[in-house]
Amino acid sequence: MNHGAETGVTLVELLVALSVLAILLTVGVPSLAGFVSSQKLDTTVQLLKDSYSQARYEAVTQQRPVFLCPLDTATGGCGKNWSDGVISYHDLDGDNSYDPLKDTQLLQNEFPSGAVIVYKKNCFQIKLTAKGTTGDNGTFTMTVSEETKKLVVSGMGRIRNG
Fold this sequence. Notes:
Elements: H1 11-62, E1 66-72, E2 77-78, E3 85-90, E4 104-110, E5 116-118, E6 126-128, E7 138-144, E8 147-153, E9 159-161
Antiparallel strand pairs: 1-2, 1-3, 1-6, 3-4, 5-7, 7-8, 8-9
């Protein structure tokens, strides 16, 4: 009987490999979680900034007001929670509220889950005039897992990191 070189892994080699894997996971998983929440926050900031800029662009190029409001994901209309997303629209019937049957929706963006967005208390709509101005200052505060960023909206209509 010819027994060639046996192949396989010894128990000691297996335990060493599992120990190294456990150490790598212990070090790597918290870093990965921080990276994921940071990316969610950056994505939320960029989506909100882009949505606002697009609404302002539409107001100026179309020469009529555009409204930006928080998205109500259940109805697809305007809601009271900026954390879900935003919707922009032309208010064709002039009642300062979104009616999908009468008004023209321009944009709808949903934000990543876990993002908390706060704008001024009881302010659930931003009106951008045909000149691209809002006439009022405000700050969006976005938080994901204790990390916070701000976007400042000026009365002149500009938006910037805060």
